[in-house]
Amino acid sequence: MQVLMYGLPILIGFSAGLVVSGAVFAFLTALGVVTRLAQKTNTQKYVRWYECAIIVGGIFGVVAGLFKLHLPIGSFFVVLIGLCIGIFYGVLAMSLAEVLNVIPILSRRIHIQRGMFFIILAISLGKLAGALLHAFIPGFYTPGG
Protein backbone atom coordinates (compact mmCIF):
# COMPACT_ATOMS: atom_id res chain seq x y z
CA MET A 1 0.00 0.00 0.00
CA GLN A 2 2.90 2.35 0.77
CA VAL A 3 4.25 1.80 -2.72
CA LEU A 4 0.97 2.95 -4.26
CA MET A 5 0.67 5.85 -1.84
CA TYR A 6 4.11 7.26 -2.63
CA GLY A 7 5.25 5.53 -5.79
CA LEU A 8 2.28 6.36 -7.97
CA PRO A 9 2.40 10.14 -7.41
CA ILE A 10 6.19 10.08 -7.94
CA LEU A 11 5.76 8.17 -11.20
CA ILE A 12 2.97 10.49 -12.38
CA GLY A 13 4.92 13.62 -11.44
CA PHE A 14 8.09 12.38 -13.11
CA SER A 15 6.20 11.43 -16.27
CA ALA A 16 4.42 14.79 -16.38
CA GLY A 17 7.75 16.57 -15.92
CA LEU A 18 9.26 14.65 -18.82
CA VAL A 19 6.34 15.53 -21.08
CA VAL A 20 6.38 19.22 -20.17
CA SER A 21 10.16 19.56 -20.48
CA GLY A 22 10.07 17.73 -23.80
CA ALA A 23 7.42 20.14 -25.02
CA VAL A 24 9.44 23.17 -23.90
CA PHE A 25 12.59 21.93 -25.62
CA ALA A 26 10.59 21.07 -28.74
CA PHE A 27 9.15 24.60 -28.69
CA LEU A 28 12.63 26.12 -28.39
CA THR A 29 13.82 23.93 -31.24
CA ALA A 30 10.83 24.76 -33.43
CA LEU A 31 11.45 28.47 -32.87
CA GLY A 32 15.06 27.93 -33.78
CA VAL A 33 16.30 29.85 -30.75
CA VAL A 34 19.61 28.05 -30.44
CA THR A 35 20.49 27.97 -34.11
CA ARG A 36 19.36 31.58 -34.63
CA LEU A 37 21.44 32.72 -31.67
CA ALA A 38 24.45 30.89 -33.04
CA GLN A 39 23.94 32.47 -36.47
CA LYS A 40 23.52 35.98 -35.10
CA THR A 41 26.63 35.71 -32.93
CA ASN A 42 28.66 33.80 -35.55
CA THR A 43 29.30 30.94 -33.10
CA GLN A 44 27.82 27.98 -35.00
CA LYS A 45 30.57 25.69 -33.75
CA TYR A 46 29.29 26.12 -30.16
CA VAL A 47 25.68 25.06 -30.78
CA ARG A 48 26.21 21.91 -28.73
CA TRP A 49 27.36 24.08 -25.78
CA TYR A 50 24.23 26.22 -26.09
CA GLU A 51 22.01 23.16 -26.04
CA CYS A 52 23.82 21.67 -23.04
CA ALA A 53 23.59 24.97 -21.15
CA ILE A 54 19.83 25.14 -21.73
CA ILE A 55 19.33 21.55 -20.59
CA VAL A 56 21.56 21.87 -17.51
CA GLY A 57 19.94 25.20 -16.62
CA GLY A 58 16.48 23.67 -16.93
CA ILE A 59 17.40 20.69 -14.77
CA PHE A 60 19.06 22.91 -12.17
CA GLY A 61 16.02 25.21 -12.10
CA VAL A 62 13.65 22.30 -11.54
CA VAL A 63 15.83 20.76 -8.81
CA ALA A 64 16.31 24.13 -7.09
CA GLY A 65 12.57 24.79 -7.15
CA LEU A 66 11.63 21.28 -6.07
CA PHE A 67 14.02 21.04 -3.14
CA LYS A 68 14.05 24.78 -2.34
CA LEU A 69 17.82 25.00 -2.65
CA HIS A 70 19.51 28.08 -1.24
CA LEU A 71 23.04 28.62 -2.45
CA PRO A 72 25.26 31.13 -0.64
CA ILE A 73 26.74 32.57 -3.82
CA GLY A 74 26.79 36.28 -3.05
CA SER A 75 25.24 39.31 -4.69
CA PHE A 76 27.58 39.40 -7.67
CA PHE A 77 26.60 35.91 -8.81
CA VAL A 78 22.92 36.57 -8.16
CA VAL A 79 23.13 39.59 -10.48
CA LEU A 80 25.09 37.54 -13.03
CA ILE A 81 22.53 34.73 -12.96
CA GLY A 82 19.69 37.26 -13.24
CA LEU A 83 21.41 38.82 -16.23
CA CYS A 84 21.73 35.41 -17.91
CA ILE A 85 18.07 34.64 -17.25
CA GLY A 86 17.08 38.01 -18.69
CA ILE A 87 19.19 37.44 -21.79
CA PHE A 88 17.60 34.02 -22.27
CA TYR A 89 14.07 35.41 -22.01
CA GLY A 90 14.95 38.29 -24.31
CA VAL A 91 16.34 35.92 -26.93
CA LEU A 92 13.28 33.70 -26.58
CA ALA A 93 10.90 36.64 -26.98
CA MET A 94 12.76 38.02 -29.98
CA SER A 95 12.87 34.58 -31.60
CA LEU A 96 9.14 34.22 -31.16
CA ALA A 97 8.58 37.72 -32.56
CA GLU A 98 10.84 36.95 -35.51
CA VAL A 99 9.08 33.67 -36.26
CA LEU A 100 5.71 35.40 -36.21
CA ASN A 101 7.07 38.36 -38.21
CA VAL A 102 5.75 40.75 -35.58
CA ILE A 103 8.32 43.47 -36.17
CA PRO A 104 7.89 43.80 -39.96
CA ILE A 105 4.10 43.77 -39.59
CA LEU A 106 4.27 46.38 -36.82
CA SER A 107 6.52 48.65 -38.86
CA ARG A 108 4.17 48.44 -41.87
CA ARG A 109 1.04 49.02 -39.82
CA ILE A 110 2.30 52.12 -38.03
CA HIS A 111 4.18 53.36 -41.11
CA ILE A 112 7.65 53.53 -39.63
CA GLN A 113 10.51 53.40 -42.07
CA ARG A 114 13.33 54.21 -39.67
CA GLY A 115 13.67 53.99 -35.91
CA MET A 116 12.55 50.41 -35.22
CA PHE A 117 15.68 50.06 -33.12
CA PHE A 118 14.35 52.71 -30.75
CA ILE A 119 10.95 51.04 -30.52
CA ILE A 120 12.54 47.71 -29.66
CA LEU A 121 14.84 49.45 -27.17
CA ALA A 122 11.87 51.21 -25.55
CA ILE A 123 9.97 47.93 -25.22
CA SER A 124 13.04 46.26 -23.70
CA LEU A 125 13.71 49.09 -21.25
CA GLY A 126 10.05 49.13 -20.24
CA LYS A 127 10.19 45.41 -19.55
CA LEU A 128 13.38 45.92 -17.54
CA ALA A 129 11.83 48.73 -15.51
CA GLY A 130 8.76 46.62 -14.75
CA ALA A 131 10.88 43.67 -13.68
CA LEU A 132 13.01 45.86 -11.41
CA LEU A 133 9.93 47.46 -9.83
CA HIS A 134 8.43 44.04 -9.23
CA ALA A 135 11.67 42.69 -7.76
CA PHE A 136 12.67 45.56 -5.50
CA ILE A 137 9.42 47.17 -4.33
CA PRO A 138 7.57 44.87 -1.93
CA GLY A 139 3.87 44.65 -2.72
CA PHE A 140 4.24 46.53 -6.03
CA TYR A 141 2.25 43.87 -7.79
CA THR A 142 -0.14 41.49 -6.09
CA PRO A 143 -2.12 39.18 -8.36
CA GLY A 144 -5.86 39.61 -8.11
CA GLY A 145 -5.58 42.65 -5.84
Topology:
Layout: H1 2-31, H2 33-41, H3 47-67, H4 74-99, H5 102-109, H6 116-136
Explain how this protein is built.
The protein is mostly helical. Helix content is 79%, strand content 0%.
Radius of gyration: 20 Å
Judged by helices, strands and strand pairing, the structural class is: mainly alpha
Number of helices: 6
The overall strand count is: 0
Order of helices and strands: HHHHHH
- Return the average pLDDT rounded to an integer: 78
Residue stretches low in confidence (pLDDT < 50, at least 5 long) are: none
Distance between the termini: 43 Å
Record keyword descriptors for this entry.
145 residues, mainly alpha, 79% helix
Brief rundown of the structure:
With 145 residues, this protein is an all-alpha fold. It has 6 helices and no strands.
